[in-house]
Amino acid sequence: MSTICSVSTPHGLGGIAVIRISGPLAFKIADKVFKSAANPPKTPPQMKTYTCAYGQVYSNDEIIDDCILSVFRAPHSFTGEDVCEISVHGGYLTAKKTVDALINSGAVHARNGEFTERAFLNGKLSLTQAESVMDVIRAKTNTELRMANAKKDGLLAKRIEKITGDLRGLCAKLGVWADYPDDYDYYFENFDIEEILLSVKSDLEELTKSPKSDEIIRNGIPTVVIGKPNVGKSSFLNCLTGRSTAIVSDIPGTTRDIIETEIMIGEHRLRIKDTAGIHETADIIETIGIARAKEAADTAEIKLLIFDAGNIDDCDFEIYKNLAEKSNTIAIINKTDLNIDLPSEMLTRINAKAAFTVKISAKNGTGIDEFTEILDKFIKQSKIYPDTEFVLNERQMTIAAAALSRITETVDVYKTSAALDIISVMCDSVLSELLTLSGENITVAVADKIFSEFCVGK
Length: 458
Description:
Blueprint: E1 4-7, E2 14-22, H1 26-33, E3 34-36, E4 51-59, E5 62-72, E6 83-90, H2 92-104, E7 108-109, H3 114-121, H4 127-138, H5 142-152, H6 155-179, H7 184-187, H8 193-207, H9 211-219, E8 221-226, H10 233-241, E9 259-265, E10 268-274, H11 284-299, E11 302-308, H12 314-321, E12 329-334, H13 344-353, E13 356-359, H14 368-382, H15 394-415, H16 420-438, H17 444-451
Helix pairs in contact: 4-5, 6-8, 6-16, 8-15, 15-16
């Protein structure tokens, strides 16, 4: 097993950069580049686990930087191997020269995710826990972080363990029965096969429910901005992003296709689409854009209806008649900088189309803070986020769905009074899927593929 090293902190300027070394020669290699400032000096091979030493990191006889060296002895480390971490001043050159010195001393550069892969292979983390490490790193909202930590703490692993435990018990009994078929009553006394099969099916249904909600957690809440041409949809989007995401002009029909971007608003991540202005037109390109705008509105969890305070008429309400439901709609009255007093009956009609109404000026940014507060309240009231403790990633969902399909087929076959040897083979197939999900039945090549999607140094 090689000894690997890599920078584990983001590249660029910062307070510190941490270089991690893991493997059988971690202490020996670290000793070649680190000189302790203590008297007597502390060397990595002599240091106790969970201790630090101050000193300098060297390349040959050249000082690279002052540093702190930390020691984690196997198996009490993240990877389960001997690990050293060298903390130098944050900067590209100090980190690079430290890694170069370690490689010149016998280490090899870690592949993407190799530290976490070693933690998995050494039994420090289950596969689902290891996968959740990147979920924690990538989390942008409190909900994402909470769910990622639940998986990292082993909640998903425990769910899978419970399901596989039930199925293993059944497979074991069916295996023994296959050797001693005359003793059925002895092995299956007070043991209901159908009950176990239905329990496994129910657990897998719970595990794989609400894939649409899972998508919201992973990619953001699907949101669409809709309205007539020139009501300020693109200006509103640019106001939210703080940059020129969409082209803005006084010419109606400027936006002809979907413009999608990700926006953090408060603690919520939105996958927001700016759409073509909806109106009657003979222009072929505009017609296609309008059709796409309607499709986006049909699939959005949140619809933001933009009104032009100076130009609200029956056309607005005709547009929204088939595109919006009050329960998932926020009405935004734009261009309030024009200082136009809307008639009360017009406000009543607008309020009837939306759960909330807010007045803004995308031109000067007024009302955006109020919109943010309303959006937060709207999302919490609407319960858009899934009522679940965690979500599955694409690999996990694919395997769990396959296991559910197979256990459903097994239940159906069992109800036809099929021979138990057939049920045994089918249960083994379901169990194989579940062991792939947990990582107990996974090849090194597949593990390498999973962890290659991690960042370097993790």
